Amino acid sequence: MNTVSVLSATDRQKSLQAVALLVFLVMGLSGAMGPTLIPAIRIVFGLGLSSAMTVQWIALVVSGLSSLILAQLLHRFGAKAMVLAGLGLMALGCLQVRLFIVSPFGVDARYGLMLASLAVIALGTSVLQVAANLLVVQLGPARTASSRLTLAQSFNSLGVLVGVSLGTNLALNAKVTTAPAMTSGIGQAYGWSAAINGVALVAALMVGATAWSWSRPSVKSDTVQSGNAPIRAALGSGWALAGAAGIALYVGAEGSIGSILISYLHQKSVLNLTLEQAGHYLGWFYWGGALAGRLGGTWLLHRWPPARMLGIAAGGAVIASALAAMGSGSVAGYAALSIGLFNAIMFPVIFSITVERSAAPSAAVSGLLSTAIAGGAILSVLVGWTGEHFGFALCFVIPMLAYGLIALFAACGSILPSADKAPQDSRMTSSVGNLSERT
């Protein structure tokens, strides 16, 4: 009887682990839709680049600001309920976009309703980000938590790659981007609707699968309790503020480049690709490079100082951004695509260096870094404005400067020693939830 009970508990835990990994896959899938849809938005709604980039920065703002209250809900309702809620919000938002983009409302009304729907999707993704990391940590012993989180983040990267490919095939394929479909925008609208509807179906299936898995008795596992240090405890630490700026710079640079890269590669002066081809290049080279860099970086970070690795990555990104901004042809195009590889390790290293070097409580620092994600929206706005007034190439000057500041941050991280903290402050959770890494 005891053997049967143990096996049953083991099976239930494996089932929950599988669902948790699929949650990270869905997060990456949903988050990857924006970059492939921005070129479609410009045609469907007749927008400039600045307006189209709203899709990028609205997700960052919602993600950063919502983290202030999501952890309180996490503490009250638990990770499982929050994951279900996040998946439900994503499905609802996707179905709303599917409805509004082909609705009989006027163009302005449809665009506003669509942005509201995208905010719902971003909120659902943020809920998953806060809850799923903690869930993965709880599903097993503490000594193997890091390896489980690394595996989960790899699934997130895989989801991004699949999402970009899906969005490219449905929203940017040749059949809907050639005249007269391109002129009218109808083909783009239906292609976009199909892509969003696909994400909605995946999210809905995840809700069903998760509910089925969690209808069984709970699995006992090692629990990681959240700290309660408020964010204001980190505001007096210059190093914590520098790390928050580094997070904002990284998130803004990575997302902005991913959002404009299809249109950039489409230019005759760069690679002269069709929108569909450019979308596939974005998926396999830019986001695929990030996936490869994450897997390889995990091995390298065990052998090289993290601050030094961050400096090398940021320096490489500065050079690649400069080539993309000032060059032309295949050199500029492939330089821009290579930035994905350099981005791979930046978030976790900036996060860990900040927590180690700051004298503020780790829980407070973690909360500040979570909220700082919203600051990346500033770079998205600047990139959109630059592209609209000076062309896509000069857009890369903004992330080039951001990566330069991150390189400076890495240099300081190599010099400053780790801060001495109380043992209870070593937990990387906070009043705004657990944050291990963002894709």
TrEMBL record:
GO molecular function: transmembrane transporter activity
UniProt entry keywords in alphabetical sequence: Cell membrane, Membrane, Transmembrane, Transmembrane helix
Keyword Transmembrane helix: yes
Alphabetized InterPro entries for the sequence: MFS, MFS_trans_sf, MFS_TsgA-like
Chain positions covered by the region annotation Disordered: 420-439
GO CC field: plasma membrane
Lipid bilayer topology: Multi-pass membrane protein
Cellular localisation: Cell inner membrane
Biased composition (Polar residues): 426-439
Range of residues in the leader sequence: none
TM spans (from-to): 21-45, 57-74, 81-101, 113-137, 149-172, 192-214, 235-264, 284-302, 309-326, 332-351, 363-385, 391-416
PANTHER family: L-FUCOSE-PROTON SYMPORTER, PROTEIN TSGA
Protein name as it appears in the record: FHS family L-fucose permease-like MFS transporter
Naturally occurring in which organism (per UniProt): Novosphingobium sediminicola
Phylogenetic lineage: Bacteria, Pseudomonadati, Pseudomonadota, Alphaproteobacteria, Sphingomonadales
